[in-house]
Design a protein that fits this description.
β10 and β11 form a beta hairpin. The longest helix has 19 residues, at about 1-20. Among the domains are: about 125-310, Dipeptide-binding Protein, domain 1 (Alpha-Beta Complex), CATH 3.90.76.10; about 415-495 and about 550-685, Dipeptide-binding Protein, domain 3 (Roll). It is an alpha+beta fold. The two termini are about 35 Å apart. The chain contains 22 helices and 25 strands. α11 (about 435-440) runs antiparallel to α15 (about 490-500), α12 (about 445-450) packs antiparallel against α16 and α20 runs antiparallel to α21.
Length: about 725
């Protein structure tokens, strides 16, 4: 940890020197200032001079100066591709990557991809974004993609970025990548069609752009299309109405602009708002054009929900499951559902990463492994690399295997994430803060940590991981401010009584037997009438009683589930909290967790055990946004707390470059999140990556997952 922290602190000090000369970049992990931050023309802390003379009389007094033009590119494509060119070799060999996480074959962004599927997604779609992150997490404009870039701020504070991309970029198929493919990424990520029930894709990615609300909303002018009297009207069969996105302008085949709404500025991660990659227009929306009549880019009438159902959602050929037109270092070959083998191969048309690196491994096969046998598979060579391993038992087992086999090695790094119990904060009875707090006091997390991670982890108390620089910069203050929710059943009982769970099933005072109940007098506290949760309510003598019953969904063969089952359930029963134990496959759990296309009558689970990791750009503001469009994803806990959201927005608007304010705002948010407790963090830990020594130059760490690290690695036979 000290080594990581020293590296990050050293970078911050170096960046401070660069910022004094004019900022050129943003660091979303070490929270350095983003591009677009104006350096002050003078030190505002200086006291005014007491010289009574008119300063205009001084011939040496400098006159007004024009603000320095922001510099986003420091090299061209040829120079960038030459950086690592000498290291590039003809790709060869096959590498088998094992991962014991479940896959469900979802390889395009916008949905809730499982971890192993997300790795495939990143390797086939990544590296041609307008913005890239280097090894330190610093954000830059991509010189391999962008030939020219400039920015301009208007009188309203709206900031327009204008890009011209190189004309030699092509898809893996050889078809040209144009500016329309980048514009389409914005439109596809913002349009109402993508968010309809048949598609279910996240469609709020352009929320910070000028004109988003007008483009995103289903216009009032839309009416069901004319149909024959005997023909059933399809739910999403609408007459075409032109919708222009004012913040996205098509200039020509290779030039476009993106305008950030000034209401969303300042923003700590400014460049992240224009960090779009290309989406193949001709594959997703064949026959559709992107036009611009002067008021913003728009899609022609051929773009419909029905078209997306065919090109994106078809189980056999849909782009969501078969991304056959891509631009990343690798291209998608196939997914064998029966064996859960996912195969990718080198993209022959890939120019190189931001520093000119081309992949050296020809074929990568990702396979589902079983925790009990994966180390044996590594030792025998059936698997070359095991994705990050955690848990003391698994880690010690891996270390023993490495010690016994000279052809194996490992690396380790701190996790930028955590495992947790997730609650649904809008449904009974986890809607009550006191109930969530009580559960925290009933689960002996110290015992959990000792049994699960041992010396390879640490208990955390809010939304942060051990590898996160914000945590490392505010660790002392955080530890002092957060409620550690120590094991305390007596306090749990007090909290349950404060929440009103003081009755039994007959409406009498709870006497220590059975399940606690609460009388409901406020209809706002009731679950939807059609839901399974509503069926748990009890009517007694004209009173509506809510049982203290939580339906918990977990996954099979999961040591975390086993520990929760052993440590929490008996303690809960002692205090009158009934927890039903439901084990389902991971893809089923996710469907319920996100309430993905889930009707109210199937709403029945309010507690899940999961794990998460943080991206380079923190997005707390989205994960706590109470707007209905954000509920389910990315607001997975269904948090309906305006005060928490306001704290997140305050952090969002931290002035770029103000490190102290950023860390302080982050700290205040963590304190509030710890109190609200939509999730009960269980542990953050140290990851171990075990692999064959024939895999060299493999640099997976806290910032680079194995998907990206493999692009920089090679096989040495």
């Amino acid at each position: 940890m000290k080594k990581v922290l020293a590296l990050l602190l050293a970078f911050v000090m170096v960046f401070s020197v660069l910022a004094a000369c004019g900022p050129t970049e943003e660091d979303p992990v070490t929270t350095d200032p983003p591009a677009g931050t104006d350096a002050p023309s003078e030190d505002p802390s200086e006291e005014p001079s007491e010289d009574p003379e008119d300063p205009t009389d001084d011939p040496t007094e400098p006159g007004p100066t024009e603000p320095e033009e922001e510099v986003y590119l420091t090299m061209n494509q040829e120079e960038a591709l030459a950086i690592r060119a000498a290291e590039n070799v003809e790709p060869s060999g096959t590498l088998v990557v094992g991962d014991n996480s479940a896959s469900y074959g979802d390889f395009w962004g916008g949905w809730t991809n499982a971890a192993p599927d997300a790795q495939v997604k990143d390797m086939v779609h990544g590296e041609y974004g307008l913005i890239y992150f280097d090894e330190l997490g610093v954000m830059h404009v991509n010189p391999v993609v962008v030939e020219e870039v400039s920015s301009e701020v208007d009188e309203s504070g709206n900031k327009t970025f204008t890009f011209k991309i190189y004309e030699n970029l092509v898809w893996n198929t050889g078809d040209p990548i144009t500016g329309d493919d980048y514009v389409f990424s914005v439109l596809m990520g913002s349009c109402w069609e993508a968010g309809t029930t048949p598609i279910g894709r996240s469609n709020t990615s352009g929320a910070e752009l000028l004109g988003y609300a007008e483009f995103h909303a289903l216009p009032e002018e839309y009416v069901p299309a004319d149909t024959d009297e005997d023909e059933e009207v399809e739910e999403f069969d609408y007459e075409y109405v032109k919708r222009e996105f004012a913040g996205v302008r098509r200039i020509d085949d290779y030039s476009f602009s993106i305008t950030v709404n000034g209401e969303w500025l300042p923003y700590w991660y400014e460049l992240a708002l224009v960090a779009y990659g290309p989406t193949p227009l001709h594959r997703i929306a064949p026959g559709v054009e992107i036009l611009d009549d002067g008021n913003g880019a728009y899609l022609t009438e051929e773009f419909t929900v029905a078209l997306l159902e065919e090109t994106v959602m078809d189980a056999e050929t849909g782009y969501r499951y078969q991304p056959d037109v891509t631009c990343g270092p690798y291209q998608f070959i196939g997914h064998d559902i029966d064996t859960d083998l996912r195969t990718i191969e080198v993209n022959p048309n890939f120019l190189g990463t931001f520093d000119g690196k081309k992949p050296a491994i020809e074929t990568i096969v990702l396979k589902k492994t079983v925790q009990d046998t994966e180390m044996e598979e590594l030792a025998t060579g059936e698997v070359d690399l095991l994705a990050p391993i955690n848990g003391e038992e698994s880690i010690r087992g891996g270390l023993k295997v490495v010690e016994a086999n000279d052809h194996l090695t490992y690396r380790t790094y701190l996790r930028n994430g955590y495992g947790y119990l997730g609650f649904q904060c809008d449904e009974s009875p986890t809607q009550y803060r006191e109930v969530r707090h009580a559960i925290a006091h009933l689960l002996d997390r110290a015992a959990f940590l000792e049994q699960y991670a041992g010396p390879f982890g640490q208990t955390v108390h809010s939304m942060y991981g051990l590898g996160q620089v914000e945590y490392q910069m505010r660790e002392v203050e955080l530890d002092e401010a957060l409620n550690p929710y120590t094991f305390n059943p007596e306090r749990a009982v007090e909290l349950l009584e404060e929440a009103g769970f003081v009755l039994d099933a007959a409406g009498n005072e709870y006497a220590g037997e059975g399940t606690r109940h609460k009388e409901i007098t406020n209809e706002d506290e009731l679950p939807p009438a059609s839901s399974v949760l509503a069926g748990q309510l009890v009517e007694v003598d004209g009173k509506t009683l809510m049982p203290l019953q939580i339906n918990w969904m977990n996954t099979p063969d999961n040591p975390v589930s086993e520990l929760i089952r052993a440590l929490l359930l008996p303690e809960a029963e002692k205090v009158g909290l009934e927890i039903t134990d439901n084990t389902q496959e991971f893809n089923v759990l996710l469907k319920h967790f996100y309430r993905e296309a889930l009707p109210e009558e199937e709403l029945e689970y309010t507690m899940f055990n999961l794990a998460t990791g943080f991206a380079e750009v923190l997005s707390f503001w989205d994960s706590v946004n109470p707007d209905p469009e954000y509920l389910g994803y990315p607001n997975t806990s269904f948090i309906l707390d305006d005060s928490l959201y306001n704290l997140a927005i305050e952090m969002y608007h931290t002035e770029p470059g103000d490190f102290e304010a950023w860390y302080d705002n982050w700290l205040e948010f963590q304190i509030a999140y710890n109190d609200y407790l939509p999730e009960l963090p269980l542990y953050s830990d140290e990851y171990h990556v075990f692999h064959n020594t024939r895999l060299v130059d493999y640099r997976q760490d806290v910032l680079w997952d194995y998907g990206r690290a493999l692009t920089w690695a090679r096989i040495e036979e």
